[in-house]
Amino acid sequence: MTEQYVPTKEDYDWLGNLLNSLRDGGVWGLPENNAVFQVDKKNRVLTLIDGPRDYLFDRLEAVALLHFYTVKEKERHEKNSERQSN
């Protein structure tokens, strides 16, 4: 059985500062796992646009919920459309 991640106040503050520093539509990368997220401030969504859905995704999701943000993966048909247009 794996332990459930519980965000700390430092995690909460760190993500809040990060979100405040990014513009709507901006992108942010996690160097630890090469994940890239796009920020939608209007709809309060962080979208994984590249990289793995792993334990860091799950941890980010836990902290983001405290800021009333949803974390999701980019939809498959969006990925396929981009590949076809390149």
- Secondary-structure element pattern, one letter each: HEEEHEH
Mean pLDDT: 90
Sequence of strands across the biggest β-sheet: 1-2-3-4
Largest sheet: 4 strands, mixed
Q: Judging from the principal axes of the Cα atoms, what is the shape? A: globular
Features:
86 residues; alpha+beta; 4-stranded mixed sheet; 41% helix; 23% strand; globular
Note down, in words, how this protein is organized.
The protein has 86 residues and is α+β, with helices and mostly antiparallel strands. The protein has one domain (9-76). The protein has helices at residues 9-21, 55-66, 76-85, and strands at 27-30, 35-40, 45-50, 70-73. It has a 4-stranded mixed beta sheet, with helices on one face. Strand 1 (27-30) and strand 2 (35-40) form a beta hairpin. The chain is globular. The termini are far apart.
Structure summarized in a few sentences:
This protein has 86 residues and is an alpha+beta fold. 41% of the residues lie in helices and 23% in strands. The chain contains three helices and four strands; from the N terminus they run αβββαβα.
